[in-house]
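Reply to dn_fold:

You asked what the input looked like. This is it:
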Amino acid sequence: MQQTYSLKEKSWNLLHVLLPILITQLSLTATGFFDTVMSGQASQIDLAGVAIGANIWHPVFAGLNGVLIGITPILAQLNGAGRRSEMQFVVVQGIYFAVVLAVGLIAAASFILEPVLQVMRLEEAVSNIALHFLMALSIGFLPLFISSVLRNFMDSLGYTHVTMVITLSALPINIGLNYLLIFGKLGFPQLGGVGAGYASAITYWCIALLSITAVHYLRPFKEYNIFRRFFPLSIKTWKAQLLLGVPIGFSIFCEVSIFGVVALLMTEFGTAIIAAHQAAINFASLIYMVPLSIGMAQTIVVGFEVGAKRYRDARQYSYLGIGIAIAVAFCFAVVLLLWKEQVAGLYTKDPTLLQLTQSFLAYAIFFQLSDAIAAPIQGVLRGYKDVKVTFWLAVMSYWMIGMPTGYILAKYSLFGPYGYWIGFIAGLAVGAIALFLRLIKLQRKLDIMSGS
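and this is what came back:
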């Protein structure tokens, strides 16, 4: 990361950080994408089972990974302030914390997973696939969390292309293992949707091993000696990470969990609706990777500038990223408007399911436009280390507006299951407006403090 002096330089620097992050996030999401698509080719039951398992797992992982993301603004500001000698200790403490988090999650899952699935009253076959999919996936929790910390470290230094290469290298492994384990090819057992869980877990181990190798042997990472010195646990450092990470994690959980809860509520409408809803959400999640990646890049570049107390530069990066996200969102809206039938065809050939998926995709056009504003602003605010307000805004927009609106429309109007998607749109729109107002207030405050 280097200081920039013009809007052109900032644009190139942001794209240099952003594009590898985007490819990395698309690659990570592609793991879930291929799990869903390939399970759907096995059977509708496998698709529904993996969908339920994914909708339980994704909010939990997103929230816990958000806690780990708390290390990114810390490292970015240390880098911007030139205090690089302190980064080794912070990263090692982050790894310790990731291990504790993974072990705790595995222990908790072993007690509560089956009762949760029983409460949902799913078809027995669907419930069985969801349970064993998640059990298989849990084998990869530990390496997944460790690699997340290492990815945040490498990204905070601006070397986002390294994590991109690592993630891209693991993607063919995931696709190949899905092919072998879902469909039982080349002598492997035919596990259906459960095979997707094992494939993803093994892929997570591969990503962790590649990340450890890169940090240990490649410049400039090896100069930080991450694995060459032992440090005792530091509760003070954990507390600093938690003060940032917990609000980030909860705000992400509030956003992602509403989709998971809605997927569970969709069970009353039958297996076909579950499958169509999940297919549409899966594709919308791919689109969301663009504003999400812009937000992650914003955290790094804004955090770097804030650490150096260059608040004017931080503000310029903020609006540059938001503008890019909105432009891309309009392009995706055109794609969904004109080619939603082709998109739906990626997930199923069943005529009924194809039509239902297209209907859900039509609603995705609107809420991804709000995502294009909200996600980059969240990333900017994290760069400023302003995370508590974003958590409360997430609670308000998703759970006090989005969820009640969706539930009422789904239960007491002709919209049926589509009512939940209207709730998504309402919550996201309110959240985007509130975040934008918060950003303006924060930047004005810093301008006054700095005298600019």
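The mean pLDDT is 83.
Hope that clears it up.
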